[in-house]
Specification:
Elements (H helix, E strand, L loop, with lengths): L5 H5 L20 H4 L20 E3 L5 E3 L6 E7 L4 H9 L1 H9 L4 E7 L4 H11 L6 H10 L1 H10 L1 H7 L4 H12 L1 H6 L5 H9 L1 H18 L6 E4 L2 E2 L6 H11 L3
Parallel strand pairs: 3-4
Antiparallel strand pairs: 1-2, 2-4, 3-5, 5-6
Helix pairs in contact: 3-6, 5-12, 8-9, 9-11
Organism: Qipengyuania spongiae
InterPro entries: Thioredoxin-like_fold (IPR012336), Thioredoxin-like_sf (IPR036249)
Protein name: DsbA family protein
Length: about 250
């Protein structure tokens, strides 16, 4: 086990509920005023396409949905085990895509902040295969969060034992204990594909390292954390508080 990934694994020494402690943010501040801009025009997608069909992997290992040159750039740091992130996915993502991303005015980039080994496994599984699957799989995880996480809570001892296995086996077995293979098979990811992705320890390490490095550099202390045009929005953690910021930034 390498030192770079050990902090992620060490969270299992506490009850798994503690891994959710960094979910959510404080109260909203002056976010809308901070990113105020002139109204921007819609940008037509390439012929025969929609912007919500366009996905690019960024240099930050984020998955950018929509117009890569959109004048308003929204980034969300999110944990796949975070109830507040799940609430945003349920309440706001469909409207965000329909009203803002599909107009070409706003791009939406998701980046993972990892809140424990179970979260790391989920972050790898949503990445496994074609990049276009990342956003839909993430949304389905959030919309079924209790179902996804309950087996991990119910089988903490077995999950912890899986993490003591050799590098190429630990996450493969961890996903088995957590019941993730059956869940992701419903999303079109076969067990063989999932196991291949989870056996690639270097890819797991990359996700964990990116989470740690970016969280430290950008002072991302909780999820969801939103960034609009390079400015972190303190206290904005819901769709009702984010939408006015996008409108004030010019998506109106």
């Amino acid at each position: 086990m390498t030192t770079t990934i050990r902090p992620i694994l060490a969270t299992l020494a506490l009850p798994l509920a503690m891994a959710l402690a960094s979910c959510g943010s404080g109260e909203a501040g002056d976010a809308a005023e901070a990113v105020a801009g002139e109204p921007v025009a819609e940008v037509a997608p390439p012929a025969g396409q929609q912007w919500t069909d366009t996905v690019a992997i960024t240099d930050s290992d984020g998955y950018l949905l929509g117009n890569p040159d959109a004048p308003i750039k929204l980034v969300e740091y999110a944990s796949l085990s975070c109830p507040a992130c799940a609430a945003f996915a349920v309440e706001g993502v469909d409207e965000l895509k329909e009203k803002y991303v599909d107009t070409g005015r706003v791009s939406f980039e998701l980046r993972n902040q990892i809140h424990g080994p179970h979260d790391l496994i989920l972050a790898r599984l949503v990445r496994c295969g074609q990049k276009e699957a990342y956003h839909p799989r993430s949304e389905v995880v959030w919309k079924n969060l209790q179902e996804v996480l309950q087996p991990v809570f119910d089988n903490q001892e077995a999950f912890g034992q899986a993490l003591e296995l050799p590098e190429q086996q630990r996450f493969v077995q961890g996903a088995q204990v957590a019941g993730f293979y059956d869940f992701f098979s419903r999303l079109g990811l076969s067990r063989d594909e999932a196991q291949t992705c989870l056996a690639d320890f270097s890819s797991m390490e990359t996700i964990a390292n990116n989470s740690t490095q970016q969280s430290n550099e950008l002072e991302i202390t909780g999820t969801p954390t939103f960034i609009v045009n390079g400015r972190k929005l303190d206290g904005v953690s819901s769709w009702s508080s984010l939408e006015p910021v996008l409108q004030q930034a010019g998506a109106r």
